[in-house]
Every structure is written in C-alpha cells, then in structure tokens.
TrEMBL record, chain A:
UniProt-listed PANTHER family: DIPEPTIDE TRANSPORT SYSTEM PERMEASE PROTEIN DPPB-RELATED (PTHR43163:SF6)
Organism: Paenirhodobacter enshiensis
Name of the protein in its database record: ABC transporter permease
InterPro entries cross-referenced by the UniProt entry: BPD_transp_1_N (IPR045621), MetI-like (IPR000515), MetI-like_sf (IPR035906)
GO cellular component, one term: plasma membrane
GO molecular function: dipeptide transmembrane transporter activity
Alphabetical keyword list: Cell membrane, Membrane, Transmembrane, Transmembrane helix, Transport
One Pfam entry name: BPD_transp_1_N
PROSITE patterns reported for this sequence: ABC_TM1
Superkingdom of source: Bacteria
Alphabetical list of SUPFAM superfamilies matching this protein: MetI-like
Membrane topology label: Multi-pass membrane protein
Length: 313, 365, 306
C-alpha cells in the first residue's frame, strides 16, 4: 500500500510538470506580444527594451520557462499587471471563497446523488427508477448558468426571499444574511454532481447486484441491510472516482456560476483576469486549479486502493 | 470422403509441391525455446523477477503425426503454443519448419510460417469476432493472404461443410447463435482456411461437454487424414491426449521432462512426474483403484522455480544431487524416440537409484 | 484406439433437425440495434425533437419572420405572444423567434463540430494507443494525462481566454477539450478488445496491423466510443453557450443562444420569461443528446464507466 502510494505520488510529478509547461505555453498562444498588452502602443523603445529585460522576455523560451518554474517552486506566482498585487495572495483569498461554496455544494450534490442512485438501482425498471433517472439526466443536461438565472428570477425577483447576487460575508458566513447569500449558488453548483453521481451510483450498484455473491447472500437469507452494505462497499470505488472528478469540476467550473452570482471566487478572478489580459493572474489561477485537480485525483486513487485492494497494481 | 476427393483438392492455393523437405524431414524442430515474462514491482516498477513460463523446450514433430503435449495448468503449455505461432516472441531458441530455419532475413518469415501453421484456441467464444458472420470469419484469413473475396467465401462455405456445419444454414450466422461445439468447429474451419500443413490445438476440446468433445475429436482425426495435417495437441487431459496422439511430450514447469510414443509413455513411463500423472487418472478397474494420492502439493511458483531438477520438491526419490544439477534429456533404452530428463535414468549421475529406473507404481503397490 | 474415419454427416442430421425452425439468415448487429431503438419511445421522442431543432436551424432563413440582426428601437422588450412577434423582442427590438432560429446554427455547430473532430482525432489516437500498446501507448496516454489534469470547463475557458473571442477559437478550444476524454475511452475499450482471442487468431492468420485494426478491432470498439461521443455533444453545447455567455465565444451582434442569454440577463427584472428563453433551447438540445446517448447505450448494450 505504501509502495502504491509512493508510486502514485511519483507519477503525479511528471503530470504536474506537464501541466506547468502547458500553462506556460498557453500564454504564448496569445496573439501579439505579451508586452504590447502591458505598455501603451506609443511607448519609447528603450522602455520596451528595459521591460523586456526585466520580465526576461529577451531570453529564449526555455529559459523563461525555467525562471517561471523556479519562482513557482518558491510559492511566487508573480505580480498582477493590473494592480501590482501579488497573485498568490489574491488567489488564496479567492480560492477560499470558492471552497465556501464548493464544499456545501459537494455535500448536497453527492448526498442527493448517492441517495437517488441507490434508490433507483434498488427499484430497477420501476416507476421510481424512471423518475429518478429523469431527474439525474436533467441535472447533467441543464446549463447551470441558465438554471442560476431561473433561480434568481423565482427566489429573488418574484418571491424576494434571497439575494440575487453578491457574497454577504468575509471568509465564513456568520449571519443569516450571509447564509442566505450562499443558498442559490450552492444549489446551482450541486446540480451537476447530483446528476452525475446518481447515474454512476445507479450503474455501479446494478453491476454489483448482478454479481454472483449477491445471489449467494440472498440465498443465505441475508437479504437486508447487510446485503445493502456489501453492495455499497463494492460500488464505492467507482463512486469515489466520480466524486473526486466532480469536486474538481466544482472548483474549476465555478467560473460560470460565480459570474452569475458575482461571487468573488477563483472563477470570477479568472474571468476578470481574462478581460483585463492580466497574464500572471490567468496563469496562476489556471495552474493552481489544475494542480489541485491532479492532487485530488491522486487522493482518490489512494482512497480507492484502500477500499479495493485489487486496484493496487 | 478420401484424401483424393476432388473437392478437397480444389481447396489448394497452388499446385506447388508443398512438401519441401521430403518425408524424412521433421515438420517442425524446436531447439531450446525460452520465454521469461518480467515481473515489475515496487516504487520504480523495477523488474524483480521473471516468470519462467517456457524454459528451454526442444521438440521434434514428424510429418503427419499428432504430438500430444500434457502437463498441469501453469506448466507453460499455452505459452509454448503461442511461442510456436510467434504470437509471443521467444527470448531465445531456434525453429526449423520443414527444413527451413525461421529467420526474418535469410529463411522462412513469420508471415510465411503462418500460412503453413495455424492455431485453434481453447475459448471458442472469445476466439470469434462477435461482429462477423461465420463465413466472413473463416474467409478473413484467405483474404488477408491475397485470395479474392468471392473465392474466399466459396472456400469458407466449403470448409463449413467439411467440419460438419451445413453452410446453407450456418454461414450467415453470428457466433453467439451457435453452441460451444459448433463454434469450435467454426474455429477449426477458420484455422484450415489458409490451408496450413500444421495446426496447433491449444486445449481445443477442453471446454466442451464430454459428448461434444468426442465428436470434435473424431472430426479432428478425420480432417487430419483428409488434409494430410500435422497436429500439436495441447491438453491437460491425459485420456484425450492418449486417444488422439501418436507421441506425447510431458511438460513440467516450463520444461519437457519426458517424450515418447503413446505406448512408451503409457507402459514404460520413466520420469516420476509422468508416473504420478498416469497414476492420477481415475481407473474404471476396481482392482486398480487409486488409494494413495499419487502426487502431493501444488506445483512450485514458476517465478522462483526450484534449483536443479524442477520436480524435486514433489519427487519421492529426490536427493541432494537433484537440487544441485539439472538432469539432461537422454534417450531411454526401450526404444527409439523415448527420452527423459531424470538423474535416475543416467547410470553415471550419482543418484542412488541411478540406472534402476525406480517405478512409482511398484512402490505404491 | 480406434481411429477409423467415420462419416461426420452421421451425427449431422440431428443437428440440422434441431435448427430447421431457425431462419438461416440472422440479423446483423446494427439491425438489432435499430430494432431495439424503434421500441424505445423516450429515445424516439428525443430524436424527433432534435431533428426539429436541427431542421429549424438549417432552414432558419426560410422560417424566420424577421431579420435577426435588425431591430426597431420602438419595439424593444415586447413580451412573448405580442402581435407580430410570436416570442417577443429583445433589448434592442429584434425579433426573438428569428434570433432563436438563427441562434441554433451557431450553437449546434459549436456543439457538434468540436466533438466530431475530436472523435476522429481522439478515436484514431486512442485506438492506436490501445492497439499498439508499448511506447506508442505511453507517449499518447501520458500527454493525454496532462490535458486530463484540467477540468474541461477550465481548459475551454483557459484556451479561449488566451486565443480570444470568435467562432473559430471556440471550435478550436472545445476540440482540444474533447480529444483527451475520447482518447481515454477509445484506449480503454481497444485494450480490452485487443486481448481477446479472435484478434490473436486474426493476427495468426497473417493479417497486417492495419487490417486487424480495420476489420477486427474497429467494429467492436465503435459502439461504445460513439455512445460516449453523443453524450459529449450535450456537454459541448452547454460549454459553447457558456463561453459565449461569459463573452469569450462569438461576439455581438451574432445570434447565439449563450450570447443571447447573457445580453438578456439584465432584463430579468423586466421580463423574466423572455430572458430565460434562450436557455430553454440550450437545455432542450443538451437533454436530447443525453437521452439519445442513453438510448443508444442500452440498444447497443454498451457498458461504460463515465
């Protein structure tokens, strides 16, 4: 198990390096010179040369990359072009705000998803299964940014129960107003994980139920909660894998929902950076979110191997 | 139907003389074939050992003969089949097919070998493409070898009739609509479609019901005579091997321990492992009922096989010599072609029973 | 042992008799799939709705009652059912029905085209990786792993954000996003099929790698890959509209559902129903693709781990 964990950790290193190269190269795809975005078009030539040297743009690409990587390894994500604040600090605050939404959304979405999935599988083919399958397929088909607008129309515009946008607290909600401001974004975010998890759980439970050992348990008269326990334990690795992916999507995909609700999270930060052409902030945000996703997958793999020894190769 | 039947002759790709080496030249000579599969483990995925699946196997198969290969599961029989077909590349070893050495540059190529040698697999279902009709599955190989589609399909239907499946009824069906026995007949027809001279039957009847197994065995024998084929018949079932084979090779942990004609093996087995195998066959004669277990324990792990003679850990006659030196393959006095790899057969080996050829059967009685 | 040649036909009549009732021509796999689909009302309805949406997008110039890009400033924000404007007008007085019809062209294109290209490229790479194994597999799959390290929405936004707005850049970024998952699924099903005996047997019959891939592997991996790709179209449509919604996709005054949703967003206090209309179409199209994917999956009897 330890060997598996260490091997899996070592495998993550080249992927993280690849991610950093990809993020670095993405910036090179920007049409035109990165400096053109930072300086007015009538800037004097010697200023351009000076800036070039300062940012290292006069060096070959691989040297620029190594320099950037070296800074990264020291926790330095650079400075925002827009307001000269360190990217790392801004990003850290924004990530916190994203997590405040993502964690309750994950709990809600995964909880409902598992419940729906198991219920649907146990009622395989019956009306309850069909109804729940429709719910989950709706969950994965809804454009969540649109669903967010619909929620705002109903609960903010028509009923005036909840605020339409904005985060009504710092770091953690402590007041009713603060909690109220979280309700709509959390519901919106939980929609996709609910749909995906319930579909995967349903399929995994059905698969396990079709295996011999469930029949054996039934034949022994053990059909009851203990059989359900066996089934859930065997369906757990697949469920865990999809939950890991979905949590990553909650963080990385928060940009649309955060834009609708004007929530100051990492997605919103990325959106602003894109429109301000603030390259260090763009690079930093994308890189950190991707790195988090890689580590999340790693944790899921190890957790899967803990539950199911067959996965340790 | 006989060998000279015109319909059988029409199946020939060309009228070129196919027998290149003459009747005395063995169809296949295998020299010291080896295949070790690496096992990777640990943090760096280092190779920590090798499964010695096939470890120095030498075999000779004469033209028109059926060579049975027997052994317990895991002894390397199936790996050997795939090595001979070159579906797995051997680590080392030499092959001579009808006088032509197998070599990509100067001799017979693998591609050419496969026009002369075909294989039937154990699992009749997974060895047929579920998306292909039976006739297409059989016609595939000739088409890959340059035969036109119409001719290949005609040949395919002809072969279906030859293996006892009416082409009119079965040609357009899919594998899942057939029974195990019928599917194995299709696999046999598929193997014959390139008009091979030699067929490797890897546990080809092992998965079938006993009654179906007998029918398919009978069919194999008929086809062998009709098309003048040479078989390597790999099986764990001694009775079946005895029924169909002319000669038998006994394998243990990746090595051939004894070879000989059916009678030599049956009546005068020299290797303790062969004797144990024979003693394990359930007898219908109440006077010859087996009381003591003829062989105990599981075969050792092929990753780390015993030193010297590989059978020594389960052999009742094992001595220190057996742990230090691997026995050479040597001829047995009783007749031509009988060979065995055991120190007890070699008077000069130093084994306390050397030259006496101790008989397990006698001791058991 | 008796090894005399017996006539095989002697055992054959029994077999023939048993099977006489069965027709000798059995339906092929795709015929069966079609038959099963024909008995699945949900999938049929979804397909019918989708055909309707696609046709109305194709024939938008014939169907649209107004120019989708020209509005009358006096006719702004007319409600659904307003005389002369069946679905009302938007914030600059353009006819909503016409814009929604035209919008389907861009939205469907940016949903279907990237997945189609990704299917060709990713399918080829994934099947090759699974089929050849070894170093070919390692190179393709390790590069895929890197792309896979990005959540799909993040990758699409990142590439689009770098490349800039416009239909072409949307297509490029979405194609890049969908290649890795298609490679993964293709590689995994191909690896399973490749290890089956019939591929070995075909190899033993002297077939060259390309022929093995074309005749033995491809027909057996196509169904699951297609099913998966259909479900990706649903995601692609949501993502493409999402990019426009963020202002990263096509730009005004183009008619595109995501963009319309964005520009009407400020109008939710005035006419929420009107503002929600483009989203209904995104949802409906995406739902149709998901339902069709599910229907295909059960008709093709494909087991997929998503």
């Amino acid at each position: 198990m330890l060997s598996f964990t260490i091997r899996r950790l070592l495998q993550a290193i080249p992927i993280l390096l690849g991610v950093s190269i990809l993020v670095f190269l993405m910036v090179q795809m920007i049409p035109g010179n990165a400096l053109d975005l930072m300086l007015p078009s009538d800037a004097p030539k010697d200023l351009i040369e000076k800036m070039k040297a300062e940012y290292g743009f006069d060096k070959p690409l691989w040297q620029q990359y190594l320099r950037w990587l070296w800074m990264l390894l020291h926790g330095d994500l650079g400075v925002s072009i827009f307001d000269s604040t360190p990217v790392a600090a801004t990003l850290f605050d924004a990530l916190g705000n994203t997590f405040v939404l993502a964690i309750p959304a994950a709990v809600l979405g995964f909880g409902l998803g598992i419940f729906f999935g198991v219920t649907a599988a146990l009622n395989n083919g019956k009306a309850a299964d069909k109804a729940l399958s429709m719910v989950s397929i709706t969950g994965v088909s809804l454009p969540h940014y649109w669903f967010a607008i619909v929620l705002v129309v109903i609960f903010s515009v028509e009923l005036n129960w909840l605020p339409a946008q904005g985060m009504q607290f710092d770091t953690l909600p402590s007041t009713v107003e603060g909690l109220k401001s979280m309700v709509l974004p959390v519901i919106t975010l939980s929609l996709i994980p609910m749909g995906v998890v319930s579909r995967v759980v349903r399929a995994a439970v059905l698969e396990v139920m079709s295996q011999e050992f469930v029949n054996t348990l039934n034949a022994k008269g053990l059909w009851s909660r203990s059989v359900l326990g066996h089934i859930l334990k065997n369906a757990a690795p697949a469920t865990l894998a999809v939950m890991g992916l979905q949590f990553g999507y909650l963080l990385g995909g928060s940009i649309l929902v955060e834009t609708v609700f004007n929530w100051p999270g990492s997605g919103n930060l990325l959106n602003l950076a894109i429109f301000r052409r603030d390259i260090p902030v763009m690079q930093g945000t994308i890189l950190v979110l991707a790195a988090f996703f890689v580590l999340l997958n790693l944790v899921v793999d190890v957790a899967q191997a803990l539950i199911d020894p067959r996965i340790r190769r | 139907m006989t060998r000279n039947d015109p319909s059988a002759r029409a199946l020939r790709i060309s009228d070129m003389p196919r027998d290149r080496g003459g009747p005395a030249q063995p169809m296949l000579i295998l020299k010291d074939y080896k295949k070790h599969f690496p096992i990777r483990k640990g943090v760096l995925n280092r190779t920590v050992g090798h499964v010695q699946a096939v470890d120095g196997v030498s075999l000779t198969v004469m033209k028109g003969e059926i060579l049975g290969v027997v052994g317990e599961s895991g002894c390397g029989k199936s790996t050997l089949s795939r090595l001979i077909m070159h579906l797995i590349e051997p680590d080392s070893g030499e092959m001579i097919f009808d006088g032509d050495p197998l070599s990509e540059h100067t001799g017979l190529t693998v591609q050419a070998l496969r026009r002369n040698m075909q294989m039937v697999f154990q699992d009749s279902f997974s060895s047929l493409n579920p998306r292909m009709t039976i006739e297409d599955a059989i016609a595939f190989a000739p088409m890959m070898n340059g035969v036109g589609r119409d001719e290949a399909l005609a040949r395919s239907r002809g072969l279906l009739d030859q293996v006892g499946l009416a082409a009119a009824m079965f040609a357009r069906r899919y594998p899942h609509e057939l029974s195990g026995g019928q599917r194995q007949r299709v696999n046999i027809a598929r193997a014959l479609a390139v008009e091979p001279r030699m067929v490797i039957l890897d546990e080809a009847v092992s998965a079938l019901d006993k009654s179906v197994e007998a029918q398919v065995l009978q069919l194999l024998i008929e086809l062998q005579e009709r098309f003048d084929l040479t078989y390597i018949f790999v099986s764990h079932d001694l009775n079946v091997v005895r029924y169909i084979s002319d000669r038998i090779a006994v394998m243990y942990l990746g090595r051939v321990v004894e070879t000989g004609s059916v009678d030599q093996i049956w009546d005068n087995a020299r290797h303790p492992y062969t004797q144990a195998l024979l003693a394990s066959i359930p007898s219908l004669d109440p006077d010859r009922r087996t009381t003591a277990a003829p062989i105990s324990g599981d075969p050792p792990n092929p990753i780390d096989p015993p030193s010297g003679c590989r059978f020594r850990t389960r052999c009742p006659f094992a001595e220190t010599l057996c742990a230090t030196t691997a026995p050479e393959v040597q001829p047995v006095q009783d007749g031509a072609g009988h060979t065995v790899a055991c120190h007890m057969e070699n008077p000069a080996s130093g084994h306390s029973r050397a030259g006496t050829g101790a008989r397990l059967k006698e001791i058991a009685q | 042992m008796n090894r005399s040649v017996k006539d095989t036909a002697s055992e054959f009549p029994a077999v023939a008799g048993r099977l006489n009732a069965v027709p000798s021509q059995s339906p092929g796999y795709w015929t069966l799939v079609r038959k099963r689909l024909m008995r699945d009302p949900v999938t049929l309805i979804a397909a019918a709705v989708l055909v309707l949406i696609v046709l109305s997008a194709i024939f938008a110039p014939l169907l649209a009652p107004y120019d989708p890009f020209m509005g009358k400033i006096t006719q702004r924000m007319k409600p659904v059912g307003f005389a002369g404007h069946l679905l009302g007008t938007d914030e600059t007085g353009r006819d909503m029905l016409s814009r929604l019809l035209y919008g389907g062209r861009l939205s469907l294109t940016s949903g279907i085209v990237p997945v189609a290209i990704a299917l060709a490229v990713g399918g080829f790479l994934g099947i090759s990786a699974g089929f050849f194994g070894g170093p070919v597999n390692s190179v393709i799959m390790r590069v895929t792993d890197i792309f896979y390290a990005f959540p799909s929405i993040l990758l699409a936004i990142a590439i689009c954000g770098m490349l800039g707005t416009g239909l072409f850049n949307t297509l490029v970024s979405l194609t890049l996003v969908f290649i890795p998952p298609i490679i993964r699924i293709s590689e995994s099903v191909t690896t399973q099929v490749r290890s089956l005996d019939f591929v070995e047997a075909a190899r033993a019959s002297g077939a060259r790698p390309f022929a093995l891939m074309r005749y033995q592997v491809l027909p057996n991996v196509l169904a699951p890959i297609l099913v998966y790709a259909t479900s990706l179209v649903s995601l692609a449509i949501i993502l493409a509209a999402g990019l426009s919604f963020l202002g990263l996709g096509v730009s005004a005054p183009a008619a595109e559902w995501g963009l319309m949703l964005n520009s009407l967003r400020q109008m939710i206090y005035i006419d929420p129903l009107l503002a929600a209309l483009p989203g209904v179409l995104i949802f409906l199209t995406s739902m149709c693709f998901n339902l069709i994917s599910d229907g295909l999956r059960s008709a093709m009897d494909v087991r997929l781990k998503l």
